[in-house]
Amino acid sequence: MGDYDWDQHNRQQVLEGRQILERTSASLARSNRIAIETEQTGHEVMSELEVQRESLLRSQRRLENANDGLSKSSSILRAMSRNVLYNKLILVMIIVMEVLILVGLLYLKLSH
């Protein structure tokens, strides 16, 4: 037991500890770089999503405006359709009245 070299053993442990510490430091540095890259990617994605959100909001506003325009157009077309129907009814009534007047005049002319 007297031949055991404690200094060599201690040096070996210090060297092993140092190697472990260096590997841990390198691993932490890699993890830090990956975290920074991930953060940058996250910022880029968030910026892209913000641009897409604004684009979608603009599209939504345009669609709402188009929907309002379609509603107005639809009500105008309904009003025009009603007016066409009323005009046809008035025209039919005028034609019926003219026919009745003609029949009345013929009756008066033929009865005298």
TrEMBL record:
Principal localisation: membrane
Q: Where are the transmembrane segments?
A: 85-108
Position of the signal peptide: none
Q: Where is this gene product found?
A: Membrane
What SUPFAM superfamilies has UniProt attached to this entry? SNARE fusion complex (SSF58038)
**Has UniProt tagged this entry with the keyword Transcription regulation?**
no
- Name a GO CC annotation attached to this entry: SNARE complex
What does the record give under GO molecular function? SNAP receptor activity; SNARE binding
Membrane topology note: Single-pass type IV membrane protein
Its GO biological process annotations read: Golgi to vacuole transport; intra-Golgi vesicle-mediated transport; macroautophagy; protein transport; regulation of protein localization to plasma membrane; retrograde transport, endosome to Golgi; vesicle fusion with Golgi apparatus
Would the keyword Membrane be found if you checked this record's keyword annotation? yes
What Pfam family is a match, any one?
V-SNARE_C
Keywords from UniProt, A to Z, are: Coiled coil, Membrane, Protein transport, Transmembrane, Transmembrane helix, Transport
User: Into which family does the record put it?
Assistant: Belongs to the VTI1 family.
Name it: Putative v-snare
